[in-house]
């Protein structure tokens, strides 16, 4: 997860692609349809990044984030470096690192619903659901799986010992986080993430129909807080900026409450 996220963030900072720091949510998966060990990472990446000085939002190009061939080489190189650092005594043939790593990058969709559908599909998935168990007896377990090349449904019959071996190898160690956040979504970047939300809100086009005006407090009730408008309004002077209602300061407001 660390190697994948670092490679995505490094390439995205290149001005030829995004030009800013993107947010990466990485989810670890370790299984295939037949419960064989197949470690891989699913990453949800923001559709743009924030500049180094945290003042500008750079949106990614439509249906393009970074070049895939450059990304798979960078992920492989970073993974190799991290493996040498964590396991210096592990000997791996050089031929292993000449094999191309398989990556897939696609635009998933716009808006909150698209993000929720992606997260629900990958974050909460387990190696095997009860619905895929087609048969069970005293000695064997039969599971259903989908053949990747043809898409056809098939069954696989395993002994009890083999089934438990395959299933338990996907149980993560205690304290291991299968979901991790990098770049703009790292906890240390909360302040920049908040700035990005504000930038995107100001850039969002207004919804159809004029927003209601804020309700001003009556003179008899100076402490009544007016209701904010549903949508930010356009600036009446430049006609481009967006006005976000905070509150109305009237002559009844105490002077100390008006201090910045």
Strand sequence of the main sheet, in spatial order?
2-1-8
Average pLDDT across residues?
Answer: 84
Number of domains: 3
Order of helices and strands: HEEEEHHEEEHEHEE
Specify the overall morphology. globular
Estimated radius of gyration:
26 Å
Alpha-carbon distance between the two ends: 44 Å
Strand residues, percent = 15-25%
Count of separate DSSP helical elements: 5
Kindly state the percentage of residues in helix.
10-25%
Q: TL;DR?
A:
The protein is an alpha+beta fold and 260 residues long. It has five helices and ten strands; from the N terminus they run αββββααβββαβαββ.
What does this structure look like?
- The protein has 260 residues and is α+β, with helices and mostly antiparallel strands.
- The chain folds into three domains: 2-127 and 174-202, no CATH class; 128-169, no CATH class; 209-260, no CATH class.
- The chain is 25% helix and 20% strand.
- It contains five helices and ten strands.
- It has helices at 2-12, 68-86, 112-122, 160-168, 190-203, and strands spanning 23-31, 37-45, 48-50, 57-59, 133-136, 140-146, 153-159, 179-183, 233-234, 242-243.
- The strands form four sheets. Strands 2-1-8 form a three-stranded antiparallel beta sheet, with helices on both faces. Strands 5-6-7 form a three-stranded antiparallel beta sheet.
- A hairpin with a 5-residue loop joins strand 1 and strand 2.
- Helix 1 (2-12) packs across helix 2 (68-86).
- The radius of gyration is 26 Å and the shape is globular.
């Amino acid at each position: 997860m660390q190697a994948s996220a670092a490679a995505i963030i490094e390439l995205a900072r290149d001005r030829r692609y995004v030009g800013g720091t993107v947010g990466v949510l990485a989810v670890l998966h370790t299984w295939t349809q037949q419960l064989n060990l197949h470690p891989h990472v699913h990453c949800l990446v923001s559709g743009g990044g924030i500049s180094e000085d945290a003042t500008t939002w750079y949106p990614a190009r439509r249906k393009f984030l970074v070049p895939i061939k450059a990304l798979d080489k960078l992920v492989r190189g970073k993974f190799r470096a991290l493996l040498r650092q964590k396991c210096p005594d592990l000997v791996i043939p050089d031929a292993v690192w000449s094999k191309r790593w398989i990556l897939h990058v696609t635009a998933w969709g716009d808006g909150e619903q698209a993000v929720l559908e992606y997260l629900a599909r990958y974050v909460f998935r387990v190696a095997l659901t009860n619905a895929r168990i087609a048969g069970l007896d005293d000695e064997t377990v039969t599971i259903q799986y989908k053949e990747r090349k043809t898409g056809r449904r098939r069954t696989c019959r395993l002994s009890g010992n083999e089934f438990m071996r395959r299933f338990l190898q996907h149980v993560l160690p205690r304290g291991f986080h299968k979901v991790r956040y990098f770049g703009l979504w790292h906890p240390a970047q909360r302040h920049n993430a908040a700035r990005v939300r504000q930038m995107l809100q100001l850039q969002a086009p207004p919804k159809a129909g004029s927003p209601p005006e804020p309700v001003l407090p009556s003179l008899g009730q100076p402490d009544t807080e007016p209701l904010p408008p549903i949508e930010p309004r356009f600036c009446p002077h430049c006609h481009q900026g967006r006005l976000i209602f905070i509150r109305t300061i009237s002559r009844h407001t105490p002077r100390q409450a008006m201090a910045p």
